[in-house]
Amino acid sequence: MTMSLYRSVESIAHRRHPVAKLLAMLPLFVVPLAFNAPAWALGALLLSFALVLASAALPNLGRVAGLGVVLLVMSALLWALMLPEREPVWRLGRLYASPVSLQYGIAMGLRLNALLMLGVAYVSCTRPEEFTGALRAIGIPATATLALSLTFRLVPMLAATAQTVTQAQMARGLDLDRGGPLTRLRRYVPLIVPILAYAMRSADDLTRALESRGLGAAATGRTEYHEYTWNAGDTALLVISVALAAGCIWARAIGYGEIVGRL
User: To 10 degrees, what angle do helices 128-137 and 151-171 make?
Assistant: First the structure.
């Protein structure tokens, strides 16, 4: 289990300037958020998938594929049953759904998956150090940039901790495979305390390491180890992402990609 989702490969996204990638993410997030019709949300999903391919992030996408399926199914189910003020077509007791609510739920699931793909593409082609440098380049204080950059490592670190603790407990005789779903779920309870204790100890060690390196001290004359060069490709990335966001906002404003108005 690696401590970062970054993939050290060569791709067109890896060659982009860290600031360009960071600034381009903001308008790109607008694209899936602009529409709530399934066909248009599917278009946004395909765009996000294209960015995953451009970032060589397919292996990381496979790691979160299960989460994407859960988001799609649960979103379709919840919105189909709970969208207010829609004409009921299918009714089961107090629950009802309609074709419009079902389509809206599917669109919301596609939207969430598009956002998930964008995040996977970004972390796959951007080192935590590049993310930190980009934040500092746009004027974010050093302490805040460090806190934000640590989020890149949080989920992989917790996953690695859970894997280590689980393997240790299984070596001591804990059987997590036998029995029904509820029985197996109860057997995971003894893992919670050591995982949390391990994570808290790691956080304490990290705090001491940062303090020993002068975190919070005056940053006069701070320099960067890596220097990045801005080129025409970075400018094109920003122009295209802003144009896409503006086009999506314009399309939604004139009525395209909408099956349900503002709730």
Answer: 160
